[in-house]
Each structure stands twice: as C-alpha cells, then as structure tokens.
C-alpha cells in the first residue's frame, strides 16, 4: 500500500501477524478492526485513505493484513478485497461503508 504514508502510519508486527494501520491522531483504542488488503490494489488504497480519519474519530485500531502473506487468507478472500472485519463479522468490502463501521463500533460500546 505504497503512497499512503501521509494518511496512515504502518508499522510491521512481524511475519504472520499482519501490519497495524494506525491513524496519526489515534490515542486510546477501544476496538480492533482488521483491514484485509493486497498490494497494488487501488480499492484497498481508497478504503485505507477513507478509513484513517474515521478510525481516528471513533478511536479504533485498524490492523492491516496483506492476504498474500497467508495462503489461507488468500484462498478465503481472493479478489474480495479490501474487507473490514471485526471478530467474525464482516463490516464491509470493496468500498468503505461508514455507517456500517459506526454501527459496529456502537454495538461494541453497547456490549461493554
């Protein structure tokens, strides 16, 4: 996901652990969302750009995972990227659904 340095900070967590996509203004993290993507995917780059300010606003952690780094993930998602997931629940795919992300965060807060 080259070219996104001005939008998000990406730090490697090590092989098999994905990457953490951390908005610059994020502080305390209340929820973890997994962002499945693949390299050179313009839809992935678009979603990352749109997601960064929303994640910062909502105070969520976004963990970016390149599906090409794991054969099981590549088989599971194939061309169905980008995908946002929380736990076992798919929030949205291909394009950011801001309303779905907000509902997922609100549901998590309501349970705690």
Blueprint (SSEs and pairs):
Elements: E1 9-12, E2 19-22, E3 32-37, H1 42-58, E4 61-66, H2 71-77, E5 83-86, E6 89-93, H3 98-111
Parallel strand pairs: 3-4
Antiparallel strand pairs: 1-2, 2-4, 3-5, 5-6
CATH fold group: Glutaredoxin
Major sheet: size, sense and barrel closure?
A: 6 strands, mixed
Helix content: 25-40%
Strand order of the largest sheet: 1-2-4-3-5-6
User: Which series of helices and strands comes N to C?
Assistant: EEEHEHEEH
Fraction in beta strands: 25-35%
| CATH level-4 homologous superfamily | Glutaredoxin
Précis, in short:
The protein has helices spanning 42-58, 71-77, 98-111; strands at residues 9-12, 19-22, 32-37, 61-66, 83-86, 89-93. The protein is of the alpha+beta class and 112 residues long.
Structure, described:
The chain has one domain (9-111): Glutaredoxin (3-Layer(aba) Sandwich). The protein is built from 3 helices and 6 strands; from the N terminus they run βββαβαββα. It has 112 residues and is an alpha+beta fold. Mean pLDDT is 79; it is low at 1-29. The chain has a 6-stranded mixed sheet, with helices on one face.
